[in-house]
Structure formats: structure tokens, C-alpha cells
């Protein structure tokens, strides 16, 4: 296939917008902003770097990239770059840096905070063609991969050796490792195994200035500042990862998944507390409420116990004897908390069936509601029952349905706020409920995001969690690597334009700047 | 010229589009996304292009290219947690493209030629003679080596490559094959265009198994094409015409079920009502088509449901089972064929790695888009070879030709057999030579 054939090929005799056919430079509108002019001027240079096939300028093609997994935020990218190597990424970023053109990195486009929302006057840098697994190094228990590799593909490649890649976001078969690094993605098994940051040993990074640098490597624990720790979760604001060294974890000897059904969320919550309280550390404890179960049933017919107001999915893994003992213990604790049915699955197929319902839940909500907001917040585990009760009240008061699917083990809530996007003002009302849920989380000592990231979606909510000095420190750090603000601008940290308010960063000078210990860029 | 698309189907199209929540779960199973890694060649991206077409009334050359690139394998339908009916969406879109988009002359000529040949068994059969003579001369091998055909026309080269080696045709099937032993059902049987012309032995085997399992088999000689190839290419009028004729034929046959041994045909015949509805047929016809569709069943799903009656003789062979897309994704039939194979004594069956990815055959896709089809065929050939099996088993004639030729191209030839032929060999107590060759 040749993109060249598609480009400039004209339209089909039907109405088309003016810039459908041509390159941005050929069709530059008279009212273009200075930045738009800059991105149009870059086109020939970008084409020289990426080749005909690696650059999209046709508007209908660019439009398919207008949002990531959070479709409420949309913006057609100025151009789309599809690099195939780190050198190409570095060359594109360097070009952006030289011309002051913003760039936005994007992996598989499954993010749920609009972290990959394109910039209309910028370059969208998509890593979907950088998807080679470069090395499976069993002796060093690590894998070296390109950023576009799907999370689950690492496990598929390592499985024949008895290893797997532990972080497992629900979208693991599609989401990219580069995206996982940017968002510090978690998953159901974070409770025992930690987040992406706990599994990244080395990174090749293209900095916002276009330099290709190497952080860490196969050996653990490099001295000095933990730059990997800073980069993981930076949401593309510190550059683009072009090569990732991840830990491989030995596949446990035995894994058992339990499905326990309760007639109230409270009872389920009690079971969670007592399991952890007894010193059992499951690899995952997931909880779903009745509405989420209904959606999952509609989507994948997971056959969860009928009439359940809540189900817990508890997974135990490790040496056989230890797991067997813990299974008995968890069964007992669930029964004590009031479970009316507990199923135990040890075969891969049966376990997959239990997980199928849970893993499909987000997307499955599409079956019971025309649209929904996936919220992501964290509370201390002990606050779970109280916060869940308050969410139920919020839902009842507002008349807006909220389905709950969450990582109960680490208190990471995923309320799904349902609404009908065809209805006038429905999104605003749902958004309001969604925001109030976040307030609840913060009030109870939690966080505005557990694993989906801040992106555009929650940038303006950062001040609810951080004070002005905190935000300014973040900003100083960001500017130390990206003084011109070209790397994924207007994400992660609040800006006046984005939030329409004084966010704090424009306030007084930072104490460190005032004392002459730091420089304001 | 096709019927104009009515407001009703447009409204329905819009509702179906809304089902997509943009989660991206379809990306890794989409063959063109696997090949090219760009959004517009993924189901999610194509749905976006469909939205553009629908909402803004824009149908760009680029969009048409991306719709044409879609193999229609429906792996995305299996992968979608939100239940997006991509099959209905792409069929409607293709119809719209054919209605509104003027294709360049050479492309139109090629399409015209293909569609005046493939849906007609008699015309395909007429090709057998020259094709056999051609294969006997060995010119084919020399020609293939020279690469001359690839330079002249990739489509011709593909047709040359995938044509199966032909022996003299078996005698035509009778219109009625009585059940052996106690009668358990009366079924109709679809002969299929490509299956009938190039793999008549599969049809013979199918009729024989059905009879041995206690079915009266009705094989109407008047049956034509099911319309799948036309329907999947946006030629809706043509598809509707074939559909009506087929509905009438099987209504007259007075059967409980209509058994189909070709995945592509079966997948399409299970929604003949939708085809007619989209083509603007009156409700009475839609009802008739629905009743006919409800009787349609794949051979393997029918046999697994019926349960075995005839004795299975040992067949000591290692088989790899390839999921034809229109069987697994199009009809959700994955366990029945494996179950049937596993029940044959001494036969072991393996899965292919990446089994959900299309082999690139996809009806007539490999004729219109030969390059990506060949690339996908090569990948599938490697996956098949990796199983170390002696024979590849598949439930669709297109897949058999496509993967067989890919394996040969790679220098790892492996016989390819339809599930029906494997069962037939076991039921009749034939040796493995029937499948593996001498």
C-alpha cells in the first residue's frame, strides 16, 4: 500500500473540506496562527526524515487520530508522524525543538485521560510502527522492547521460558509499553507486583531537545538521581521513550482465582479488609457492583452468580502449598463476611472466564449506556466502604447511574459514570458527578488518579491535590528538560489557558528561585 | 447501479456507529493494522472514517482506499467488548462506496471480470480444463520462478498461484443422497461456487458424511451463488438477486437445516434477511430470508450438535486446525470442528500461533489487493509450518488455496484438507494417504 497514492489524490466528486486533499503547506489557510505556519513549514523536512509512507497530512486520515480512548476531548493533529526507529523519533523531535512546534507522543491510543490528545498546530508522534521485541534475556530476567509493543506481547514472548511481564492493565492486549511507561500504568495485579515504574530497568529516551539518551540498563540500581522514576509517569512531557528494558517475572507455580458473590457492597468490602488484615497478600482483589456485573454479562456472558450485589475476584499465586493454604483461608474469610457463593478456578480456561467479565467491564458498559465517563481515583483501603456509600448517595441524588469496578486491594476506584450523550447537558451533569467523586477521594486522603494519568482531563484538578508550591516545583522540573514547552504541552500540569483560572504557577516566584538556588526559565 | 440507500438503513448505520467507544481492543487482531500499524487501517480508524462519511458527507479517495484495504475478516467483531456490528457497518459502507465512488477504469474492469466469473459455478468449472492442461505442462512452475506474471499483473499472478492442482472431476452429486441406517434428519446442502468448481471432492465427502451420520441429503441442482462475494464487495443488487434465488431453492427443498461447508458462504447465509433489508426488499421477502437463514448451519456445528452415529476409524496423523475467519469470527464456530477432529482415534490436533489473524484470502480480496494478501499468506504459512503438523485442516476453500500456495512458496509444502475430508477418511476407514498423498 502506498500512502502517496492516497494523498493528493483528490476527492470523489462529493463535498469535501478544503484541506482534505492537499498537504498542510499547500493549503495553509490565510488565518493560520504562527504555529500552524510552522507545522506546515515542517512538512518537507518531516517527509525527508520519515519518507512518504511515514507522514500523514491528509485531513481525513489525520482526523482518525483526533482522540485517544477518551473521546470527549478531540483535536485534529497538524500532522501525524509514524516513525520506525529511534533515530527518526529523535530527528522529528529535534526539528520540533528547533522550530518551536509542539509534539505529542501516542502509543496505541487507549489512554483514558486524553494524555495523547493531539495538538492542532503540532506533530503527533505515533509509535505504532515501532513494535519489535528486541530481546528476551532470560538469564537477566528482562526483555528489551520498542515502545509500540503491546503489553501482552511481552508475556506471549516470555511465556515459553516460564516468565511473564507483571503489570497488566485491562487493555493489555492492545496498550503499548511506551504508553504504559508514560502513564505509569497499573493493572489488577499491582497489589502484589507494583506498577510499571517497579518493572522498568532501563530506558532510551528522546529528550524534548531531540537528544537520544540512555537511562539505566539491564543492571539494577544505577547510582544518582532516579531519572527512570521521574520519566515513568511523566505523560510525554519529558520526551519519548524509544526503547524499554522491562523486568520479566517468573510465572508462579500455581495460580488460583476465586469468585465470591455478596448481597451488598459493604459485605464485599468487609471481606477485602479481613483478607488483607489476616496477612494474606493476593496478587489481585477486584470488586464489581451489580451494574458493572450486568454490563459484563451482556458483553461476554461471564456467568457470575445470579443476584449478586457485589462480586470479588481474588487471585492467589505462588508456591503450590502456600497458595492452597491461602485459598482455604480466603474462602473462609469471604464466607465469614457474608458471601453466598464462592467459586474456585485453577485451570487457565476457568480462570480466564472469571477474568473475562472483569477485564471487559469498562468497554462492556457501552452495552448498557450510550456513553460513560471512566473515573479513576484512589482512597486508602480503610476508607473504601465509606467512599462507596457516598458514591451511592451521589448517584441517587443526581439520578445519574454509577457502575463500580475497582482494584479493591489497593483502593483504586474506577467508577463508571453513565450518561446519554444525545441528551442536552447530560455530559456536564455526569462530569459534575465524576468530579465530586474525585473530591471524595481527596477528602479521604486519596488521589485524583490511580493509573489512568492526568492528561488534559485532570490537569485542572491537580490543584485539588497539590498546593501552589508543589505545582511550581513540578513545573520547574518539567522546564529543566523542556524549557520551551514543546513536549506534550498542556498536559499533566494546569495552565491558565487550560483551566481558565489562576493555577498557582503564575503566582509568586518559587522559594528556591527567590533564594537564588534555582533559576526561573 | 445499486438501489439508493434508504433513510432507515442510514439511521440504523448511525446507531451502529455510536456503539464504538474507541477502546482499541480491535487493533491487535486486525490484519491490516498488524501489517501497517496505522489508525486508518484498523477497525477503530475505519469506523472513524465511516463517521466522517456519515456526518460530514465526505468520502475521500483516502477513505475509499482504507475501506478497500479491509479484508472483512471480522476478527474485530470477536475482539470487541462493546458488541460493535462491524460486519453490518462495513457491508453498508461498501455499498455506499460502490454507489457514490467512481473507480478508475482498470479497477472497474477487473472487478467486472471477477464478478462475472466467481459467483458462477458453471463458468468456474469451464476454467478447470484449460487450468488442468496448463498445470500438466509445468509451465506454471517456470512462470512462477520467472516472476513475469507478478510484473504484468499481481492479480493474475495471485490467481495462477492459488489455483489448486486439479485432478479429473468426480461425477456430479445426485440431487438426493439417502441416509445410511436410521434417519435422523433431512438436510439441504449448499454446493458453493469455488468449493463446487475447485474442490468437488469436499462436497462429495460432505454428502457422504451427512448420509453416514443418518441424514437424508437434498442437493438441489438449481442452486446458484449465495451472494457472499458480491455482498462483501458492496454489490448489493447482485447479492440480493442471488439471495432471493437461493431462498426459493431451499424453500422448495423442504429441509430442516441447510448445511454449508464453506465458511464464507455460511457466514453470509446466516444473515440473508439483513442483505435483503439493506437492499430495500419488502418485509415479506425479508421474513422469508430470515426463515431460510435460521436453518443455515455450518457442517461442523451441525455434526457436533447431532452427535456421532457412524464409527470413527483411527487416522494416525498430526493435524493443525486453521480457523477460517468467517467460521470463527463470522459464525463463532471454533470448538465444534476441533471437537470433531479430536474424536477421531489417533489423530492429534494443534492450533496455529496467531490463530485469530486472517490468512489474507478473504473472498476475492487476494485478487483485488494481492500484495497485502500475499504478505498475510506468508505469515500464516510460517505459523502453520511452526506447528510441525503433517496436514493443515481448514473449513473454507479460499483459505485452503491461499495457505497452501503460501506454504509451497516458502518451500515448506504441507497438504491442506477440508475438515469434511478428514472426517470422511475416518468414517470410511481410509488410510492417511488420502490426506497426505502417496
Q: Largest sheet of chain B, if any?
A: 5 strands, mixed
Strand order of the largest sheet of chain B: 1-3-2-4-5
**What would the average pLDDT of chain A be, to the nearest integer?**
88
Strand percentage of chain A: 15-25%
Helix/strand structural class of chain A: alpha+beta
Rg of chain A, rounded, reads 24 Å
Topology-level CATH name of the largest domain in chain B: Glutathione S-transferase Yfyf (Class Pi), Chain A, domain 2
Uncertain residue ranges of chain A? 1-32, 502-507
Query: Total domains of chain B, how many?
Result: 4
How many H/I helical runs of chain A? 18
Percentage of residues assigned to helices of chain B: 55-70%
How far the N terminus sits from the C terminus of chain A, by CA atoms, comes to 46 Å
The fold-level CATH name of the largest domain in chain A is: Uridine Diphospho-n-acetylenolpyruvylglucosamine Reductase, domain 2
Multimerization state:
heterodimer
Question: How many strands of chain A?
Answer: 20
So what's the CATH class of the largest domain in chain A?
Alpha Beta
Biggest interface pair, residues each? Answer: A-B, 51 and 41 residues
CATH architecture of the largest domain in chain A: 2-Layer Sandwich
Share in β-strands of chain B: 5-15%
* CATH architectural group of the largest domain in chain B: Up-down Bundle
Q: What would the principal axes of the Cα set say about the shape of chain A?
A: globular
Q: What does the model show?
A:
The complex is a heterodimer of chains A (521) and B (438). Chain A is an alpha+beta fold and 521 residues long. Chain A folds into 5 domains: 124 residues, 2-Layer Sandwich (Uridine Diphospho-n-acetylenolpyruvylglucosamine Reductase, domain 2); 116 residues, Uridine Diphospho-n-acetylenolpyruvylglucosamine Reductase, domain 3, CATH 3.30.465; 95 residues, Alpha-Beta Plaits, CATH 3.30.70; 89 residues, 2-Layer Sandwich (Alpha-Beta Plaits); 45 residues, no CATH class. In chain A, 35% of the residues lie in helices and 18% in strands. Chain A has 18 helices and 20 strands. In chain A, a hairpin with a 4-residue loop joins strand 5 and strand 6. The longest helix of chain A has 18 residues. The relative contact order of chain A is 0.10. The N terminus of chain A is likely disordered. By secondary structure, chain B is of the alpha/beta class. Chain B has 4 domains: 96 residues, Fumarate Reductase Iron-sulfur Protein, Chain B, domain 2 (Orthogonal Bundle); 42 residues, no CATH class; 129 residues, Glutathione S-transferase Yfyf (Class Pi), Chain A, domain 2 (Up-down Bundle), CATH 1.20.1050; 125 residues, 3-Layer(aba) Sandwich (Rossmann fold). Chain B is built from 26 helices and 9 strands. Chain B has a 5-stranded mixed sheet with strand order 1-3-2-4-5. Chain B has a 4-stranded parallel sheet with strand order 7-6-8-9, sandwiched between helices. In chain B, helix 24 links the parallel strand 8 and strand 9. In chain B, helix 1 packs across helix 6, helix 13 packs across helix 25 and helix 15 crosses helix 17. At the A-B interface, helix 3 and helix 12 of A face helix 3 and helix 4 of B. Chain B: Keywords: 4Fe-4S, Electron transport, Iron, Iron-sulfur, Metal-binding, Repeat, Transport. Chain B: This is Glycolate oxidase iron-sulfur subunit. Chain B: Its cofactor is [4Fe-4S] cluster. Chain B: Pfam families: CCG, Fer4_7. Chain B: Component of a complex that catalyzes the oxidation of glycolate to glyoxylate.
